[in-house]
Amino acid sequence: MQAINDCFNKVKKDCFKFISSQETKKDKFKNKDKMIKSFLIPVSFWIVKKINKKKPLIIGLTGGQGSGKTTISSILTLILKRYFKLNVFKISIDDFYKTRKDRKSLSKNKHPLLMTRGVPGTHDVDLMLNFFKKVKSKKFKSLEVPKFNKAMDDRCKKSLWYKLKSKPDVVIFEGWCVGARAQSGTQLKKPINSLEKVYDQGTTWRTHVNNQLKTKYKTLFNQLDGLLYLKAKNFNLLRRWRIKQERKLWLQTKNKKNLKIMSSGDVVDFMQTYQRITQQMFKDAIKSSSIIMDLNSKHQIQKIKFKK
Fold it and tell me: Which of 21, 130, 182, 262 has the fewest CB within 10 Å, making it most exposed?
């Protein structure tokens, strides 16, 4: 307990500063002390115990849309850097989305729904596998890692990419479908929402997405040394949080020219493409995760379970 208190006293200023940068006038974080002290510092100690000096520790962090992955991974990164003096690199699976041009081509050749970023099949998996390979290499020098601009819905130009100058001790790899598993053919047959019913009548889109999970993404997620799961109570809550997130993106973006910000209706439609995998993860991720953080309806971590 003394170590946790000591850690909290050293990191709280930086953590609170980051949290306040994420707040809006109407949307304030509650129980900040408890979130950091009771949940995120113990998770940081767990991560540190798993570190292998020879190669970076790759930790996946997953949870549905709007569950708070970016906030949680940023605070974990702060704690690991400030208190444990570790070199930590945080990256999102979203940064590896295929370009608009590539998704356009995919939508013409495979299925129109693949124009919409998000589902397995819309990321550049080879780029991700190459990143993991290089980051683990004994001959590591430096690395440029893609950055994606959601407001523009396209990959940033290379001059804006992340620069990784030294080999990290820990890589936090976050994303809504990180660690997701494929469904059976029988599960794919029945549409689960109006989008699948109307736009994927022949199951081409969801079969393609599922095949990606069975193959390339399985190889990708096998790179992980551990998986943290932010578990929401249900899909409706995630939808509500995601709408709030889009509103915040609008408020925080100063240059609103060419912005591709979604309305509440757009978010509801957009999230239908995520629904099948998210709901399957409610069942699968609780079995495959190393740590499960249960979120209450107020968007706060309620309890935590260490499994591995």
Answer: 21
Buried/exposed 247-268: b ≥16 CB within 10 Å, e otherwise: bbeeeeeeeeeeeeebeeeebe
Dihedral, CA of residue 163, residue 62, residue 274 and residue 100, to nearest 10 = 0
The pLDDT, as a whole number, for residue 257 is 57
Element (H, E) at 209: helix 204-214
Greatest pairwise CA separation for the chain in angstroms: 59
d(CA 264, CA 260): 13
CATH number of domain containing 262: 3.40.50.300
Question: What pLDDT is stored for residue 260 in this prediction?
Answer: 59
Task: Give the per-residue pLDDT at 255.
Answer: 58
Question: Which regions in the chain score pLDDT beneath 50?
Answer: none
Number of independent structural domains in the chain: 1
pLDDT of residue 30: 80
HSE-CB of 236 using CA atoms within 13 angstroms: 1
Which residue range is the domain that position 152 belongs to? 2-306
Residues 284 and 227: beta-carbon distance below 8 Å: no
pTM score of the predicted model = 0.92
Tallying the residues shown for the chain, one arrives at: 308
Q: Which residues, in sequence order, are CB contacts of 252 under 8 Å at separation 6+?
A: none
pLDDT in tens, 152-162: 899 999 999 99
